[in-house]
Amino acid sequence: MERAYDLVLFGATGFTGGLTAEYLIANAPADARIALAGRNLDKLRALGHDVALIKADASDPDSLRQLAESTRVLVTTVGPYLQYGEPLVAACAAAGTGYLDLTGEPEFVDRMYLRYHAQATETGARLIHACGFDSVPHDLGAFYTVQQLPEGVPLSVNGYVRVGATFSGGTYHSAVTAMSRLRQMAGTARQRNKLEQGRWNANGRRVHGSVKPPHKVPEAGGWVLSAPLIDPQIVLRSARALERYGPDFSYGHYIVPGTALTTAQIIGAATALVLAAQTPPTRKLALGLRDPGDGPSEETRAKSWFRVRFSGEGGGKRVLTQVSGGDPGYGETAKMLAEAALCLAFDDVPDVAGQVTTAQALGQPLLERLTRAGISFETLRT
Ligand SMILES: NC(=O)c1ccc[n+]([C@@H]2O[C@H](COP(=O)([O-])OP(=O)(O)OC[C@H]3O[C@@H](n4cnc5c(N)ncnc54)[C@H](OP(=O)(O)O)[C@@H]3O)[C@@H](O)[C@H]2O)c1
Q1: 368 found inside a domain
Q2: Which of 141, 214, 230, 346 is deepest in the core (most CB within 10 A)?
Q3: Rounded Cα gap, residues 309 and 234, in angstroms
Q4: Ligand 1 pocket by C-beta < 6 Å: which residues?
Q5: pLDDT of 219-251, one tens digit each?
Q6: Are residues 60 and 153 in the same domain?
Q7: What is the pTM (predicted TM-score) of this model?
Q8: Which parts of the chain have pLDDT scores under 70?
């Protein structure tokens, strides 16, 4: 592909976009052709980076078509993706351009699968969603755990997520928007499942989720709670795509509140937010609690951390592994997104197309990049 750029970042003026731009520019090969895009050129100039700047607006499909045709890889931090994301996915699927985003919105990912997976498979575009804390540590952590277990046997893996961090206004707005659309989310997921069913059964392998009520897991750090996040969906998609996950793979995904009291508090707060998101006046009130563009201070981010433990078993072997790092929401998310984009643009990665996961499209090369960048993948016990 003859393209003006190797990599373009759309949304560099936002909170996470700004961090991603810094990381990309500091870590790209010296001869990489990088550009930053956004709807406001003055705001882009004020970032002070010495790279090409491009004006493009999520509400102007022509500007997105030109953007997608100008680069080999396009990274976007313009969210909520349900609100702004689709035209760029459409442009990348049509132009055969590699696409990466930070969405954690299952409805968006399923809708993009239904509308653009087939076209992207034909044009060769890799459409890779959820390249931040949602869902890289979980997807690559399960990928890493599977590699510590025997081949060709049924495998069962559980992931336990613990974080010490706060979230930005952009993430909060995306989450409340997603909560206001639970019915639409379930409907889109059903359509996708129906379409994919034939493909999953085709190779005779079984891949399934496992959900248990709150319970205690000492090796995870106490009480754990199953959460309807996008992460287990992504892990299960990787398992369906990759033979290495074995003939029968199950995955359970839990957050770790630690104590019974915190578990109850989290259930209460999440229920209140879901209820508030259901009607326009209460949703407006809930959204008013945080402004988009706000984010935790540098000092808060420096103290933030995440740790995901995976217990895996199969073929008579048990392992406990861990993926860990710093500020999950922003510093590490920007690092994961930027490394995924650099990996897609410059590394020798699997030859796949369509909507694909990070493990499927970037797998081992991304795991090695993240390890070099300070995100730890380790086996605690075999
Ligand atoms: N999954 C994860 O782990 C994770 C972590 C962090 C963030 N995120 C997601 O990433 C997204 C961004 O988060 P954030 O905190 O960085 O949000 P933010 O600070 O509000 O940034 C949003 C960006 O979108 C741009 N934008 C808005 N409307 C646009 C339009 N019509 N055309 C072009 N650009 C437009 C904004 O440009 P202006 O500056 O011109 O307003 C800004 O650059 C959210 O969806 C969030 O949920 C996910």
Answers
A1: no
A2: 141
A3: 17
A4: 11, 13-17, 38-40, 43, 57-59, 77-81, 84, 102, 104, 132-134, 168, 170-171, 174, 292-293, 295, 329, 333
A5: 999 999 998 889 999 999 999 999 999 999 999
A6: no
A7: 0.93
A8: 1, 198-203, 293
